[in-house]
Amino acid sequence: MTDVLRRNNVSFVGDPTKPVLMFAHGFGCNQETWNLVAPHFEADHGVILFDHVGAGGSDASAYDRGKYDSLDGYASDVLEIIDALGVSDVIFVGHSVSAMIGVLAANRDPSKFRGLVLVSPSPRYTDQGSYRGGFTQHDIESLLEALDANYLGWSRDTAPLIMGNPDRPALGGQLTDSFCRIDPEIARHFARVTFLSDNRADLPFVSVPTLVLQCSSDVIAPLAVGQYVHAEIEGSRFTLLNATGHVPILSAPDEVVAEIRSFVA
After folding, report:
1. What are 197-244's pLDDT values in tens digits?
2. Residue 117 has pLDDT above 70, yes or no
C-alpha cells in the first residue's frame, strides 16, 4: 500500500471522518494545479491529492508504457489509491483528461464513489460523424507532430492558448512552466493517449451523481462537448461557468469551489 502512495505522490489532508474529495489533474499538470481549490475543503472534508505517474513528484520510474497506453491504466491507479487509503464514498474531481479517468474508475467500481465532478471534460477530441469534438483528425495529427518535434517549444506556444485568458498572461506562463517540468518522452506518450482516446461509450454507464463544469471559449473542450457529456450521463447536472478557457481551476478557482460546494452539500 505504501508503494502505491509513494508512486503517485499521494497526500491526504483534512478531516478523514468527513466526506472525501479526490482531486485529479489534467495533462501537463500536477497536483499543484489544485492549490487554489483544494485547501478550501480541508476544514470539512478529507482531501486527496496525487500526481499521475510521470508528473509532479510521482515515481517516474514506475511509468509503464504498456499500462499507460490507455486511460484505463490511470483509472487503475485511482482505485488503488482509494484502496490504499482505506476510504470510500469518494467525490472524484477530475480536470480535463482526468474527468474521463474518473468516469472509467467509477464505472469499474461505483461502490467507491459518492459522485463525480467533471471539469472541462472531453470523451473524444476529434470530430466523428455528427459528433463535434472540436478538432479534425488532421488537427490532432498536426498537434502531435509538433509536440514530437519540439515539446518545449510546443508547450510555450500552446499552453497560453489552452489557458485561454490572454488578458492575464501570467496564467499562461504558469501553465507553460507546468508543462515544461514533465519528462518530454512521458508527455508525448500521455498526449497521444489523451488526444486519441474515445470514451463516449463509457458515459451512459455512469451510475453515480455527476456534475459537469463547462467554460466558454475553451479551445480544447468546446461547449458542445460539455453538453454532450451532460446528455450522455443520465441525471447529471450541467453548469456553464463564467470562466473562459480550459483551466478554470487556475483562472476562476472561487467559482469552481462554489460549484463543488453546491454539489456536495
Report:
1. 999 999 999 999 999 999 999 999 999 999 999 999 999 999 999 999
2. yes
Largest Cα span, the chain: 49
For residue 107, the surrounding DSSP H or E stretch is helix 97-108
Would you call 246 a catalytic residue per the annotation?
yes
76 is catalytic: no
What CA–CA distance (Å, rounded) separates 190 from 56? Answer: 14
Check the CA dihedral 1-54-190-125 and report its sign: positive
Cell numbers representing residue 221 in the block: 473542450
Percent of the chain with pLDDT over 70: 100
> Cell numbers of 39, please?
485547501
Which CATH fold would you assign to the domain 2-124+199-264?
Rossmann fold (3.40.50)
The residue annotated as part of the active site, out of 25, 45, 95, 246, is: 246
Task: Look at the block and give the residue holding cell 484505463.
Answer: 72
pLDDT in tens, 47-89: 999 999 999 999 999 999 999 999 999 999 999 999 999 998 9
Q: Are 106 and 72 spatial neighbours (Cβ–Cβ below 8 Å)?
A: no
Under a CB-based contact definition with an 8 Å cutoff, are residues 43 and 19 in contact? no
Q: Which of 51, 77, 96, 120 does the annotation list as catalytic?
A: 96
Give the global pTM. 0.96
User: DSSP character for 86?
Assistant: T
Give residues with Cβ within 8 angstroms of 84, minimum separation 6.
Answer: 1, 2, 4, 5, 10
Q: Is 40 assigned a catalytic role?
A: no
Q: Which of 122, 218, 230, 251 is catalytic?
A: 218
Sole residue written with cell 483534512 = 14
The single residue listed with the C-alpha cell 478529507 is 46
